[in-house]
Amino acid sequence: MIIIRLIGESFRFAADALRQNKLRTMLSLLGITIGIFAIIFVFSAADTFRAKLQASIDKLGSKTIFIQKWPWGGFGDYPWWKYVNRPEPSLRDYEALKERMEHAVGVSYEVSASGRTVKYRSNSVEGAELRAASHDFNKTWTVDFQEGRYFTENESKSGSPVVILGAEIADGLFNGEPAIGKRIVVMGRKLTVVGVFKKEGEDMLGMSQDKNMLITLNFAKGLFDVENGRYGPTITVRGMEHIALEEIESEIRGAMRAIHKIKPGSEDDFALNKSTIASDQLDKMFTVVNIAGWVIGGFSILVGGFGIANIMFVSVKERTNIIGIQKSLGAKNYFILLQFLFEAVALCLLGGLLGLLLVYIGTLILGAVGFDMVLYMSNIMLGIGVSFLIGTISGFWPAYSASRLDPVEAIRS
C-alpha cells in the first residue's frame, strides 16, 4: 500500500508539473508524436497491404502445388536463362501424373486466354479471362456458386459447349436476370451458361473469379492450342490434408522426373510452385518495408527523446529548491526519481497517443477515398510500448540526478 501511495503521489507531482507548463509540454511531445505517427502509419499500411496479399495467396491452398515451366520469384538475381528452354507442361504429363499420384485429392490441367470479349444479344463484356480446365478443377480449387452448378463428368469428357461465368461478367451480360440456360458468344462460339461463381470482390493478385469464364478443356481444344506456352499451361495438384506438403512435393517431383526421363543428378526441367514461395517473398519484401518504417520514424523519435531529456533537465533545475524541501521532509531518493521519471514517461505516452490518434484519423481519411487501412491492436501496443521505452530512457538520467541532490544545497539554490 505504501508503494502504491508513493506511486500515486509521484504521478500527481508529475501531472501538476505538466499542467503548469502547457506550452513546453506540447513542444516536448511533438517529436514523439511525429515519430510514433510515422512508424505506426507505415506499419499499419504495410500490415493491411500484406493481409490482403496473404488472403489472395491463401486461395492457392496450403496443400496445392503448381507444375509450371517458370518458378515463382523473379526478384533479384533471377536466372531466367536456366528456364527459358524448359518444356511447357503437356497433356501427356498431366495424364501420366494423374495415374501415378497416390496422395492427391485432384489433378487438373489448366490454361487461360486473357482479354476476351463476351457477348449476349446487345450486351458485351470486354477484358474477360477465358480459362479452360480438366474435370478435377473443382477439386484443386475451392469454387462456390451463387447460381447453377459445376460441369458434369460427361460434359467434361465430351467437350460440351458449356460455361461457368464470374459474377461480374454475369451482371454485365444479364443485368441481374438469371443466367442459367442462356447462350453467350465467346471467340465466335456459342456456349450455354450452367453456373455463376460466387462474387469474391477485389483481389490483390488478380485471382478473383469475378471476371473469369471457365470452359471444359476438351471444348477448348477446338478453340486454341492448349499446350502452347502463350496460354500458360499449368498442372495443378492438391494433396490430401493429412499428408505433409513436403511428402506431396516429393511424390510429384519423383513422378515428373520419371515421366520426363531425367537422369539421376540432372536438374529438374519443371518448377513446383506453392503458396509458401509467395509467402516467403512477402516476408522478404515487408521486412524491408518495416526497416524503412523504423528508419523514417526512428530519427524523429530520437530527436524527440533528446528533447524530452533536455526539458526534464530544465525541469529539475527549476524545481531544485522544491526537491530540497521534499528531501528535508523525509522524501526518499526513489520517490524523487519516480516523480521525474513518471513525468518523462507521461510526456512520451501522451505524445504516442496523439501519434496513434493521427494514424487513426489517417485510416478514416483513406477509407473515405476508397483504400481500407486497418490500425491493428498489435501496432497500437507497439506505439504505446515504444513511447513508454523512450520516456523511460529519456527521463532516467535527469530523474537520477534529481534524486542524488543534497537537500541542504538544493534548498539554498
Automatic annotation (TrEMBL):
The UniProt entry lists membrane topology as:
Multi-pass membrane protein
Q: Where is the ABC3 transporter permease C-terminal domain?
A: 295-407
Subcellular location, record wording? Cell membrane
| Tree of life domain | Bacteria
Pfam families per UniProt: FtsX, MacB_PCD
Listed InterPro entries? ABC3_permease_C, MacB_PCD, Macrolide_Exporter_MacB
In alphabetical order, the GO MF annotations are:
transmembrane transporter activity
User: Which residue ranges traverse the bilayer?
Assistant: 27-46, 291-313, 334-361, 373-397
* GO cellular component entries: plasma membrane
Keyword vocabulary terms for this entry: Cell membrane, Membrane, Transmembrane, Transmembrane helix
Annotated ranges, domain MacB-like periplasmic core? 25-253
This one is known as: Putative ABC transport system permease protein
